[in-house]
Amino acid sequence: MRILEVFGICFAVFFALLFAIFFRQRLLNLGGGTIRLQVRVSTMMPGRGWSTGIGQFVGDELRFHRMFSLAFRPKRVLDREVLVVEEQRRPDGPERLTMPAQWVVLRCSNGEAGQIEIAMAESTVTGFLSWLEAAPPGQPGSVSPRPTIRPRPTIEH
């Protein structure tokens, strides 16, 4: 009888934790401005060390929350003022096995914090890059106006 009680308690705790994780994800998604992404948390082995989660846009920050975590605090916070995308590439090697099809890996510089790699759906990259470059004029995180490049006039024969 004692074994059944222990098994029942373990079963109840497992489902309570599972419910808490899904409830946390639901709360994060309620406010809107969320995307599905992966962040590379370890570079010890090539192609490995990716953590799946939810990216939440809050003002000038992209807050990364791990998918299977009970913490309400983000694991990483990327500030738009210092974040610069240095390279875009397709997943290669073992990364192709852990990421959905049509995802893009972005290698970014995060100011003094160093390099960070994030991966997201190809359709999400455009929105992410727009968020990264856009901010109200004069606000922190706004991009200074870039010189416009005018195309050369074409001469038709």
From TrEMBL:
Q: Which UniProt keywords apply?
A: Membrane, Transmembrane, Transmembrane helix
Protein name (record) = DUF2550 family protein
> Which superkingdom is the protein from?
Bacteria
> What InterPro entries does the entry give?
DUF2550 (IPR019675)
Q: Which residues cross the membrane?
A: 6-23
Chain spans, region Disordered: 136-157
